[in-house]
Design the sequence.
């Protein structure tokens, strides 16, 4: 049996590599599925023979409780930006001034998220996000499901490699189509979709998202006798990684500008999104000489593409109501593709904006989209008018509740001031569960709206009563036992959120994420905040007249106070929980196993230090083990930890983490 398991593992890994890395399939999908099923069955029967690089891990299924922090061996830096030819020439001049004329490697700037991969003896043992550049998050369980990332390298070496995880345009469309069917909020772009996928605790979600990878950086290239960046890329390819095929060595600025022009023109033909071109000095010795600023390498920069414009017809102007009651005109557009996504709506901001630009219904208009920002109508093409265009009139009543709108002094926006306006309530309820607010998973906009219309939700506090109608909810279309219990768990979990999340969630006017944090850290708990007044509020740094007035009004509003009482009665945390992700989070409530001989401290001391930080040490590696600390000459515990995908620290990492 062991032989057959080994054989199937080899066949499937080989097929995977040919398909996902070389783009040259060698077996049919049916054959692949057949072998995979056979292997899964055998592994189930004989788990002791399951190989650590078994392709069955690609299917996902591993679920973690929370993301471990990982301190990068070398900081993961970001790149400086240049936006035009002049700035590219300046960048080159700075290089030439320090180290003379250089050959560069020009690469596509893949619009995904960067990842660090650690291989030991050729086996993938850890994958981490960039995080703040110093500390990232352990996403190994999800990265193992990405089929173009090898679980085993062609050579048995210890190596760290870095690159980009991304979602192709095609997968992005498929993922969003599914989300429409499920009434979930759509991902704004492939990058957000990729980032959202690797931030899942359950790896079977990432496994279904069609993620892909390009590797482009080898932090310790000199350890492998490599002298240029280009060679490093070829080495990565030889090891089994996907390196983007459109890399180019360029000797002159003219060649570089031509490369940029070419890809500016051709970027839409690529199956994935790029947001610029990366330029890197090829010679690694020279790279070292140029060094780094506090944030960026001086030997590389990123040219960012300008925001893209496309023309389309403005079919209509409709109005929407936000959670503050602001009524915004929106463009209904003839659908067009812009930067990989189909756009059929765009904001027109407010009445003044439409008037100043003289947008008329029927106009041909230019739509702009820059990065993450929502698309915007920037101008109308007056020469293309034929006289049938209709002028714009701002609505004077709320499009939802029909109450008269109010234009506030010195503001160009109109507001619906009806407290019971359905649209405002729905928007407020949607905001309440959003990520930076109470972060309740599973509530897409459509679901909130549906629950509101069915009478399950009116106040924020109603989320915490949903458990009472569990049976009814299970009967709704699109829901089942599992999704409802996930939803209810997520609601329960949100009760622990810190005061700043709650303040932000409550949607107090002018209290955004940052202000909520300032208020929470100043007042420490809800009651202190409710007992404050304008005079005190205005003394807080960064709190001005407008915010202070709004907060004072709110804390005297009876409806608001009633709502706080209800939330309290449901057991929501009302305190500010200071951010203590540092040392304790890494150890607290974690189970450790020590293996191999530690050279810098004794095992007893190590165990004691773990206990002091809220963790415990056990002797054998099981699924419940969180972290294995590996010293010299580790034994089978280490192998077991690798095969279970458990976080592994070497002694230095362990000591660094102890020291925070
Ligand atoms: S090199 C020190 N090369 O762009 C080397 N980065 O704005 C750092 N990116 O954080 C990265 N494609 O996530 C490099 N071909 C490429 C890239 C690339 C995309 C991303 C990467 C980085 C960000 C910087």
Sequence:
């Amino acid at each position: 049996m062991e032989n057959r398991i080994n054989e199937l593992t080899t066949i499937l890994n080989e097929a995977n590599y040919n398909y996902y890395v070389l783009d040259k399939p060698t077996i049919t999908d049916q054959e692949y599925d057949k072998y995979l099923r056979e292997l899964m069955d055998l592994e189930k029967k004989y788990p002791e023979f399951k190989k650590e690089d078994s392709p069955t891990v690609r299917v996902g299924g591993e679920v973690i409780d929370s993301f471990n922090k990982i301190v990068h061996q070398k900081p993961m830096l970001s790149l400086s930006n240049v936006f035009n030819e002049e700035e590219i020439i300046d960048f080159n001049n700075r290089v030439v001034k320090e180290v003379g004329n250089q050959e560069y490697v020009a690469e596509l700037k893949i619009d995904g998220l960067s990842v660090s991969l650690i291989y030991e003896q050729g086996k993938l043992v850890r994958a981490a996000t960039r995080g703040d550049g110093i500390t990232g998050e352990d996403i190994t369980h999800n990265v193992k499901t990405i089929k173009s990332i090898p679980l085993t390298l062609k050579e048995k070496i210890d190596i760290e490699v870095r690159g980009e995880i991304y979602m192709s345009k095609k997968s992005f469309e498929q993922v969003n189509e599914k989300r429409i069917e499920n009434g979930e909020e759509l991902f704004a772009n492939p990058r957000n979709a990729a980032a959202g996928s690797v931030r899942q605790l359950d790896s079977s979600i990432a496994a279904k998202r069609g993620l892909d990878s390009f590797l482009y950086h080898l932090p310790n290239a000199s350890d492998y006798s490599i002298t240029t960046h280009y060679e490093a890329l070829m080495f990565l390819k030889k090891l089994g990684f996907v390196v983007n095929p459109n890399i180019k060595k360029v000797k002159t600025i003219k060649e570089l500008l031509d490369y940029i022009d070419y890809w500016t023109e051709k970027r839409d033909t690529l199956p994935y999104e790029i947001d610029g071109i990366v330029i890197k000095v090829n010679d690694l010795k020279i790279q070292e000489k140029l060094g780094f600023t506090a944030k960026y390498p001086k030997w590389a920069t990123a040219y960012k593409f300008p925001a893209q414009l496309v023309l389309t017809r403005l079919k209509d102007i409709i109005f929407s109501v936000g959670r503050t009651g602001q009524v915004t005109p929106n463009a209904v557009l003839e659908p067009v593709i812009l930067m990989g996504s189909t756009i059929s709506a765009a904001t027109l901001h407010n009445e003044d904006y439409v008037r100043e630009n003289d947008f008329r219904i029927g106009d041909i208009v230019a739509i702009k989209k820059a990065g993450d920002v929502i698309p915007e109508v920037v101008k109308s093409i007056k020469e293309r008018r034929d006289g049938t265009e209709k002028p714009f009139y701002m609505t004077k009543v709320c499009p939802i509740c029909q109450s008269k709108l109010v234009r506030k002094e010195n503001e160009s926006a109109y507001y619906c001031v009806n407290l019971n306006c359905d649209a405002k309530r729905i928007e407020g309820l949607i905001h309440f569960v959003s990520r930076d607010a109470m972060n309740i998973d599973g509530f897409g906009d459509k679901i909130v709206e549906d629950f509101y219309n069915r009478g399950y939700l009116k106040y924020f506090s109603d989320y915490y009563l949903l458990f009472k109608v569990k049976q009814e909810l299970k009967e709704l279309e699109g829901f089942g036992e599992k999704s409802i219990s996930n939803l209810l768990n997520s609601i329960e979990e949100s009760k622990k959120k810190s005061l700043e999340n709650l303040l932000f969630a409550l949607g107090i006017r002018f209290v955004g994420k940052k202000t909520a944090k300032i208020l929470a850290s100043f007042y420490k708990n809800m009651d202190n905040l409710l007992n404050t007044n304008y005079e005190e509020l205005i003394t807080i740094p960064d709190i001005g007249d407008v915010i202070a007035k709004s907060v004072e009004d709110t804390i005297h509003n009876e409806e608001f106070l009633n709502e706080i009482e209800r939330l309290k009665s449901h057991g929501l945390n009302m305190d500010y929980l200071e951010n203590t992700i540092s040392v304790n989070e890494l150890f607290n409530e974690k189970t450790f196993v020590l293996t191999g001989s530690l050279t810098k401290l004794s095992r007893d001391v190590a165990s004691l230090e773990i206990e002091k930080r809220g963790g415990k040490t056990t002797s054998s590696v099981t699924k419940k083990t969180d972290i294995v600390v590996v010293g010299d000459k580790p034994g089978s515990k280490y192998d077991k930890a690798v095969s279970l995908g458990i976080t592994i620290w070497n002694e230095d990492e362990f000591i660094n983490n102890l020291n925070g």
Summary: Residues 77-79, 107, 109-110, 114, 164, 216-217, 278, 297, 300, 302 surround 2-(butylsulfanyl)adenosine (CB under 6 Å).
